[in-house]
Specification:
single chain, alpha/beta, Rossmann fold
């Protein structure tokens, strides 16, 4: 199982589960990172850098131990973005440089999950007829859970 984690879930992890209070959770989380069962995209690292509430998460994202977590898009992911997703009803969610300059990280996350048959981890909520991550995932039959859902799937108990 590969989890593709969104900025919202990383911020949630740092805000609600401090390392000093939940050391076992953090060990389990970092084990997923080390085993490459938890990944993200380079665009999420930039979102963390720009997010005011993400100070702890953005510092963590700079640590050499997690650099591989934030990889750039593969050719296969770019193909999904530029063809399938760009021509869909979610066209507005696709980065403008693939259509015309306002890059949106969510679509890269979705493409990574689609290509890797992974599960997206996000704190966004499903909104029918919207362009939030869970809505797009549902339309493309991509598994999507929140942070607690990931913990439950991993059978974590603390």
């Amino acid at each position: 199982m590969t989890y593709v984690v969104d900025t919202s879930s990383l911020i949630e992890l740092f805000q609600k589960y401090p390392r000093g209070v939940f050391p076992n959770l953090w060990q389990a989380f970092e084990n997923l990172v080390d085993s490459r069962m938890l990944v993200s995209v380079i665009h999420m690292k930039e979102e963390l850098r720009l997010e005011r509430e993400g100070d702890q998460a953005s510092k963590w994202a700079l640590h050499p131990r997690v650099q591989d977590l934030f990889a750039g898009p593969t050719a296969e992911e770019m193909e999904f973005l530029s063809s399938e997703l760009a021509s869909s009803k979610f066209r507005d969610a696709v980065p403008d440089h693939l259509r015309s300059a306002n890059e949106k990280a969510d679509t890269y996350l979705i493409a990574r999950a689609r290509v890797s048959c992974g599960t997206v981890v996000t704190e966004e909520r499903y909104k029918p007829h919207g362009t939030k991550i869970p809505t797009i995932c549902k339309d493309y039959d991509i598994d999507c859970v929140n942070l607690i859902g990931m913990m439950q799937r991993e059978n974590w108990q603390f």
